[in-house]
Amino acid sequence: METLRILLVASAFNSLTQRVHVELSERGHRVGVELALGDDLLRARVAHFQPDLILAPMLTRAIPEDIWSEHTVLIVHPGPKGDRGPSSLDWAIHEDADEWGVTVLQAVAEMDAGPIWASEAFPVAPCGKSELYRNEVADAAVRAALRAVERFAGGRFEPEPLDYGRPDVRGQLRPYHTQQFRRIDWFTDTTATVLRKLRAGDSQPGVLDELYGREFFLHGGYNEDRLTGIPGTVIASRDGAICRATVDGAVWLPQLRERRRPDGPKTFKQPATDALGAELPAHVPEVPVTPAEAATRDTWSELRYREQGSVGYLEFAFPSGAMSTRQCRRLLEAYVDACARPVDVLVLGPTRDFFSNGIHLNVIEAAADPAEESWLNINAMDDLVEAILTTTDKFVVSVLTGNAAAGGVMLALAADEIWCRESVVLNPHYRLMGLHGSEYWTYTLPRRVGTTEAVDLTRKTMPVGARAAAAMGLVDRVAPGDANGFWSWVRQEAAALAETPELANLLVRKKQRRAADEAAKPLAAYRTEELTQMRRNFFEPGEPYHQLRRNFVHKVCPPATPAHLLQ
Ligand code: COA
DSSP 3-state helix, strand, coil percentages of the chain (rounded to 5)? Predict the structure, then answer.
């Protein structure tokens, strides 16, 4: 296929834009990125980059007419053919659609009404909108975008005009999904309805509601299988989440964001019990669940543990992939328990969505002393990574069904092998947060990819797709499929690994290598060196970390496309 100069125009260099970037670059196209931060900036970039094609994987504003009339501009819209409007996925979840679609349309004067270049269907999984977006939507969007690019490159494809008379054009123009549609009536809405409303609003903008006289946006939305109570009341807490009764059950809310008061400071998402603070009545009980029990129940838990033969699966799933001090410590505890089990292979990772995005920047931002909390958080992360690195009697596999970034990638590298879903995008760097980084990355990253590549990855700060990661040795195995298909493969391979006679030799070699590495340079020395730099990042004046974190947490738009994206 002819290779093209393709300019990606996006509201943010988000997961889907990164994935499209990776996929197109792998196919030999010259790919540029421009954030949609103003029409004149965009005009200047188009004039400079001279694209054959402009593709917008995630765009929340219109492209100016002089650009779409001069160039072919293709927009990725998260709805089936004929669907129009800014809240497609919200409506799909709200109305309980089984199947939805992604359509690539050409930009014209009327929003979402241009001729169609490609359209792909996907099943709507029972999860929050953002999780759906990063999984089923992203996979369908990549398929549709690649097909559209191929058709454009072929030069002969005639896009299909939007025609509501056609049987396969089933979408419609829908309004913005305001809070009016999201509002929960705790006295009449069933658990299923409450869950749909919460999921349609997660992770943005949340469902506006009242708790103890304060206004909050509710985030998350998970079933509870046992607890009940007076509808609308908070009946339990667990690991920072709160449980609210419905008319026929209860739901879990892991995070809340207080509504910003007029002239008040900006607010951001926090673990629900932190957001409520002293307002949470003392009589609300903490109702814990063990990871093993959670694996047999339909309740909310960040940790689940199950065994199949001599394989132990420790599944973790932290909202946004962010891991606070407390979450790191809970995972460490579950890991230590799993290590005490009579299993030979330990598999670590969520069954869907983010593997991990490192330390919890929101919890740090909310802390009375963010530098001190950053320090506690990175030490808790290091303790966890160290426990994995020093496990020598089990073969440990990190399984990445979804993306990972910064310390989250390095957490995965602590295992003996990394198995990765083909659609995963990794960001193995800390620089964009102004950090040197820890998690023993100076030990694990060069050991996998070599020193030159390690320096390159951390300096260039660009995303790496799963296939490229495997080619450079960053991950070991890559498998295709949706999350379920991928996990069937994981279970099959983990069982085979546990049964192979080779496993005993692998464990002997692992022990020998750890001992040799420790003799050459103790893990403690890596930790001290990394943490010396991190201490500086956290505590010394003039370091950029605190401002960068604040900008990230408050979603501050950069004034122009960052330099690392312009190369
Ligand atoms: N702490 C707190 N929240 C985090 C987070 C972290 N470390 N990493 C991601 N998030 C949140 C985002 O704020 C966003 O929240 P929202 O859903 O309320 O908007 C959500 O997770 C998804 O992130 P988003 O940036 O929209 O997803 P993405 O897939 O497009 O991009 C990353 C993912 C990882 C590239 C980007 O989120 C990032 O750079 N995260 C920070 C990584 C980091 O520097 N960690 C600290 C050093 S170890």
Answer: 40, 20, 40
192 in the Ramachandran plot: left (φ > 0), alpha (ψ -120 to 50) or beta?
Answer: alpha
How many whole angstroms from 14 Cα to the centroid of ligand 1?
9
- List phi, psi (to 5°) of 34: -135, 125
Q: Whose CA is nearest to atom 29 of ligand 1?
A: 15
Nearest to 134 by CA among 355, 348, 314, 413: 355
pLDDT tens-digit readout, 253-276: 999 999 999 999 999 999 999 999
Domains of the chain and any CATH numbers: 5-154 (3.40.50.170), 179-279 (3.10.25.10), 302-552 (3.90.226.10)
Nearest CA to 389 out of 454, 445, 350, 465 is that of 445
Q: How far apart are the first and last CA of the chain?
A: 24
Give ligand 1 pocket residues (Cβ under 6 A): 14-15, 130, 203-204, 269, 320-322, 357-362, 403, 405-407, 427, 430, 433, 435
pLDDT at residue number 567: 74
Other Cβ atoms less than 10 A from the Cβ of 102: the count is 28
Name residue, tokens 């606070």. Answer: 324
**Angle at CA of residue 202, ends 331 and 85, nearest 5°:** 150
Pull the structure tokens for residue 131.
Answer: 């999780």
pTM of the model: 0.97
Q: What is the DSSP string of 353-371?
A: S-SB--B-HHHHHHSSSHH
- State the CB neighbour count (10 A cutoff) for residue 185: 12
Residue that the structure tokens 């369908």 belong to: 140
